[in-house]
Fold:
Amino acid sequence: MPQAVRICIPPLGNEMVNLVLNSSLAMIIGYAEITRQGKLIVATTFQVFWTWGMVLISYFLITWTLALFLRYLEERTRIPGLGISGGA
Structure:
């Protein structure tokens, strides 16, 4: 089982990032879906660039935090000498 977990972390991480970007996963967490909120703000304030810039920054922060966490998991479960190390 530990070997299977090590192998499954990268694809599961990709799917987690995909879920965050392509679904309203934020609704499950308790926040309104970010893109929908951006559309509502644009319709109300007519500030297109500022609003979509904030939406972009929000999605970036969510996915970047998730990617850092997944990188930590991959490093934590890495087996020394197994696989391609990427030059490290």
Notes: DSSP finds four helices and no strands in the chain. The mean pLDDT is 78. Residues 2-77 form one domain.
